[in-house]
Amino acid sequence: MGGAIVLPLLLFLVWDYSAARLGSSTLLPRVSDVFDVVLHPTEDLIRQGTLLFHVYVSSIRVLMGFVIGSLLAIVLGMIMGLSDKVRHFVTPFIEILRPLCPVAWIPFAIIIFGGATLSNTFGYKFTDSILDYVQIAQLFIIAWGAFFPVLINTIDGVSGVRKIWVETAKTMNASKLQIWSKVILPASFPSILTGLKVGLGISWMVVIAAEMFPGPSAGIGYLMMEAYAQTEIHILAAGLITVGIIGALLNAILAVIHKTFAGWQAKER
Amino acid sequence: MIKLSAIYKDFDKQEVLKNINLKFLPGEFNCILGPTGCGKTTLLRIIAGLLKPDSGVVKIEKPSISMIFQQQTLYPWRNALSNVCLPLEFKGYSKKERIKMAMARLAEVDVADAAKKKVFQLSGGMQQRVQIARALVSNPSVLLADEPFGSLDEKTRYKLQKKLREITLSNNTTTVFVTHNIEEAIYLGDRIIVIGNKGVQADFDLTTPHPRDRLSKWFTSKILEVRNVFETLIEDEDTTDGIEKSEEPEENNDPFKTMKLDVTTDENE
Predict the structure, then answer these.
(1) Burial B48-63 (b: 16+ CB within 10 A, else e)
(2) What is the mean pLDDT of residues A229-237?
(3) How many beta-carbon contacts under 8 Å exist across A and B?
């Protein structure tokens, strides 16, 4: 554990030394200036709201897009994993769409969905509601980013369930639904969780990119672009560090979930 | 009662089962004996409804079947107790009833102390005991066993043979037990059916009461008698066949595929 902080500390030392030598905060800010922003997330930044607010908006966007993309992927992955016919029919289509980078969809999504937010799409009018900040185009891109890793891992997980486990359940007179819920789902869960882990990472990366495009007026990506425009580079760097910290935290949470619910797989090997 | 009429089964144009006609009476312990590749497991899987015969009919009176497989089939994401509870869960028993019945079965096979242990924490012998408990927990009228003690050491095997015989006797369970071990078949069986590639080759009724003394004169003479038939069978197959038969081929990964292959059952017979 101690060794894990040596490298970042070394990096910060080199960074701060270089910044001091350079003497230009618009080129390379001091580490203390950057961490001043990160450690005071409730302070207003360049009249664009607090860091905490932007993290909250980005997180809601990621959560919604990730849940939509993952649920669709798990349902389709289950069907494809269970049925050879569906898998053979859908796979070529999936293989064409899969290599398309989610960020490449941004202009296309803006053309199709425009600036529509969840609020005005579903006819709700809120004042300062978080839904006013969640655009359909962003959700589409985030969901797209989460969809494929979850789909591929779900298919792998389901089609890799040991035949003997299913047969054992059949000899217990289990119904198809019982076999699915008590055998196939728990047996494929470790693989699905791996997909969710990768999908969440991609969703988080994609939201930052989606927020840098014209339209959104909140989110860490938006804050970083505003900081860049106003040459407040220490805020831009603080945004980058915040993104990294949140990514690492999400990864740690998923690792705990994996150990708790899918730890049996590692023990079995 | 189980009645098999004119069962035929081929794999890759290799005849594995040929005109099998058998009747298993209620409460009878039947041992199916035969050389490797003669179709013992295939026959058992046909009775279990996991495989469809090419022709012929399987009729099972009051079909409440349970099966013990040769390999470890406990679900690794569950502990010993919840593995044993699973057949009762499928049948809709309450949690309280499930635990009570499962604990009783685990105690019967002397692994009640390991109820909360995960599968990977159990030894091979303990895993097989838990599998027996799971197979018997719902009081099946028919128990199918596919060489369940094949991978165990002699001491554990003897203990589990004795235990299984006691339980099936006290529950009046109709048992079909596949083995290639002559001594095991004589120790356990009320009846030994020797099968080869020409179908049923010999049928022995063993009336000596249980538990049987492995060192008795009757036991050793029976071994010689059955071995005589067995060896003649292997020699005949070596001279007439010359090709080793293929066991059931690997099927595709569709876990529900074999569910469509239900064997005809008749509750009214």
Answers:
(1) bbbbbbeebebbbbeb
(2) 88
(3) 83
Please provide the size of chain A in residues: 269
Is the ipTM higher than 0.85? The answer is no
User: Contact A65/A139 with Cβ under 8 angstroms?
Assistant: yes
Q: CA nearest B250 in A: which residue?
A: A163
Mutation site, B44, B62, B77, B267, interface A, largest A CB count within 10 A: B77
Q: What is the pLDDT of residues A148-201, one digit of tens each?
A: 999 999 999 999 999 999 999 999 989 999 999 999 999 999 999 999 999 999
- Chain A nearest CA to B249, separation (Å): 13
Three-state secondary-structure class, residue B226: helix
Length, in residues, of chain B: 269
For residue range B156-214, what is the model confidence (pLDDT) as tens digits?
Answer: 889 889 989 999 999 899 999 999 899 999 999 999 999 887 788 889 999 888 888 99
Identify whether B211 is preceded by a cis peptide bond (ω within 30 of 0): yes
Note whether B144 contacts A163, CB cutoff 8 Å. Answer: no
Cα B173 to Cα B186: distance, rounded to the nearest angstrom: 18
SS3 label, residue B22: strand
Instruction: Kindly calculate the radius of gyration of chain A based on its CA atoms and give it in whole angstroms.
Output: 22
CA B98 to chain A, closest CA, distance in angstroms equals: 14
B48, B73, B144 ranked by CB distance to A164: nearest: B73
- What pLDDT shows up at residue A216? 66
Q: Which of A214, A194, A186, A203 has its CA nearest to residue A243?
A: A203
pLDDT the model gives residue B268: 38
* List of chain B residues whose C-beta atoms are within 8 Å of the C-beta of residue A264: 76-77, 118-120
Model confidence at B222: pLDDT above 70: yes
Query: How does DSSP classify residue A216?
Result: -
- pTM (2 decimals)? 0.80
Query: What residues form DSSP beta bridges with B2?
Result: B24, B60
